[in-house]
Each structure stands twice: as structure tokens, then as C-alpha cells.
Design brief:
heterodimer, A: 263 residues, alpha+beta, Phosphorylase Kinase, domain 1, 9 helices, B: 178 residues, mainly alpha, Rna Polymerase Sigma Factor, Chain: A, Arc Repressor Mutant, subunit A
Chain lengths: 263, 178
Amino acid sequence: MTASSSTTCREMILLTQAELDGELSAAEAVGVAAHRANCADCQAAYRMIQATRLVVRSQTARHTMPARARQELLARLRKAGGLPVDAVRQNVPAWRRVSWWWMGLASSASAVMAAVAVLLLTVPGQRDLGETITDAHIRALQPGHLLDLPSSNQHNVMPWFDGKIDFAPPVKNLADQGFPLQGSRLDYIAGRSAAALIYHSQQHPIELFVWPNPNAADSEPEGEVRNGYNILHWNQQKMSLWAISDVSSSQLREFVDRWRNVP
Amino acid sequence: MTNEQDPIDFESVIVPHLDEAYNLAHWLMRSASEAEDVVQDAMLRALTYFRTFKGTNARAWTLKIVRNTAYTALRGRQDAGVTLPLGTDDGDEWCFPAIPDPAADPEALLARVQEHKLLETLLAQLPVMLRECIVLHELNGFSYKEIAAITDLPIGTVMSRLWRARQALVKLAAGSDR
């Protein structure tokens, strides 16, 4: 314990932690790793941090706001002038939504506008989803962030999601078609929990974000490019799916086509 | 709408972070009903102060309000656990011989935690100031810089709290093992 009682080692431990947390540049990380090669304390710290990262990320539940509380809150925000009426629509049957609105209504002119608003509903924040997905993907590419559960077996991945999210994501393995499953992660996309499935294509990660979208009809994949990443988005079996990767657009398209066709 | 707020903006900018807001509140309060109250208060506050929001990092901005609201609620509690029980607040007094025992086997210890699904219980036992760093970093995926902004702490303090939180988890895991 000679080197360990110096300030330097204390700082090195925090830097080791920063390295594992994806906070260091590649050059800085090299320096920290070089020190660690000869420092038993930092090696012990490294293992300890690594182990806690893994267990916390894979074992901790994301608490989701109960639908009732969510609706109450949105209603209060609307009353306080913060939301347009359609924000309360979630999980409320259409007929109730309309009658609720009519009952609470003061002016009939705004009633007409509200009716129009209900007809023109779009998924909140839909226009920003591509950006949100890209941000989530880039964040996940930081060292140690991509996988909560490294596993190439969909029979491990599927139960892993149990109790962590409120839906069962479709987990498919395309190993025999050149896109082996690497594992899974939980993420938040546009304020709700999403499953992220990670595949590989010739050393490039392809990330597939999935969350339920009960009102969506099946749709053909639509593509976009953000920050150099190719994105394909489609709906399938009441799920919203977003695939993102730095592979070429044709390769991503191939992945998506194969994924959609696996039962 | 006669209100001066721009309701469309509040909805598209702040409301998407509702689930994360609730998750943080739940982890800080350790109670579903109190988490609901906190989120409710926080979102109404956010609406009030929305005008002061400068348009960068709405997630961090929202969660900062949630965090402050939760702390206010915790201070009103008897068993607040808001102050660190270790005698000193960490500031710079980072108790030194805190280097992990190289002979310890954190992987095995935490594998057992995993097997018996103890993690949430252990995490709940951490002082809230340590717990929030873990939750913000590992569950919400915030960077050190963002956590520093949310908690109004210097980055160095965030780093040492995160480290202490992880150490405390391993220590609690060792304790629960006996």
C-alpha cells in the first residue's frame, strides 16, 4: 500500500471510475490504464466499479408512472394552462375523451378548435424521435454503456426484460443470417421505457429500439440519416421499431428486412 | 388559449421526461405515492418557471426541479436521510483508506446480490445523496457534468459521491451476505 496513500492514487481511482463511466477521452483512458497496470489498488477499484456498474444497470427497476397518476397530472397541467387538450388522450377511450372535454368546456368556439385538435393528433414529439434515437445511440456507444445484458441467446434476453419494462419486446436472433444478437439494454425514449436490442454486422453495432404503440398500423420502413447514422423506422405488430447504425443504408435495410420476416 | 405560456412547447419539451421524472422521484422518496406527489408539484413548478428555461437540455432541467422538490419533501420527513450519516458531508473530506480490499471478490459478492434480487433493497439503504448519483448516472444515463448541474455540486464531488455510493453498495452486499 505504498503508492496508495498518496493523493495521486486517490485521483487515479476517481479517474479509473471516470474511464469506466465513459467520461474520459481515449488518450486520457490510455494514461489511466497504464498506471493501473502497475497498481494493485487501482486494479481492485476497477473490478469493484465494473461489478457495481453491471449489477446496478441490469438489476434495477425503472419505475413507471401509473397511468391514472399520469392522467391526473396531465389534466392538472392542462388546467394550469400548460397543455393543449389532446395531451390527456393517452389510454382514454375516444368517447370518454370527447364527453369529458364537452363537459369541462366553457366556450364553444374553443370546442370546435379542440375537436380539430383531437382529429389532428400526432404522437407527441414524433418529429424529434429520430434525433432522440440518435442521441440515445451515441450515448450508448460510450465505453461500457451499450449493453446491460451481454447475451447472444434470445432465451436469456427475453426473460431479462421481465419486470423491468411493462411490455414484452420481440427478441429475435439473426445469427444465421449474418446479424448475431449481442445483448440488450434498457433506455428511455421520449419519456417512456424502451427496449434496446443490439446486433452486430461485421463488427458494427446495429441498435434496435422497441416500444409498444398500440394504435399504430403496420408500416413499411422509412429511412433518415442523422449525424452520419442511418435510421429505419417502422411499426410492426403494435410495436414501434427504430433501427440505427453506422453501417451503410443498404446493409441496414437488409437487416431490417430480415428482422421483419423472422416470425 | 389565453395563457401566456406556450402550451405546445411545454408539452413537447418537458412532458416527454415524465417517466424519468417519476423514476427519479420514486428512487429518492422510496414510495410510489410520495413520488406521485413530488412529480405533480415539480411539473407544476416547471410550468411556472418554464419561461426561464433557456432551451438546452430539457431532461436535466426537468430532473433538477424534480430533485429539488423531492429534497424539500424529504426535509419535511422525520427519517429524512438527507444528511450523510458518515459524520462529514463529503466536500473534500473523502475518507481515505477507502481503497477496496484487493483480496475481496466484488464480482462474486454482486453475483449473489443479483441471484437473490437484493440490489434494490441495498440501493434503497444508501443515503439519498449517494443514491441519487447512482440513479442519475446508471439509470438515467446522465454524464458527470449533467449530474453536477442537476445537483448543484462540483463535478469532483459528484465523482467522489459516485465512488462512495459504489463502495457502500459492495459493503452492504458483504453485510447482507452473512
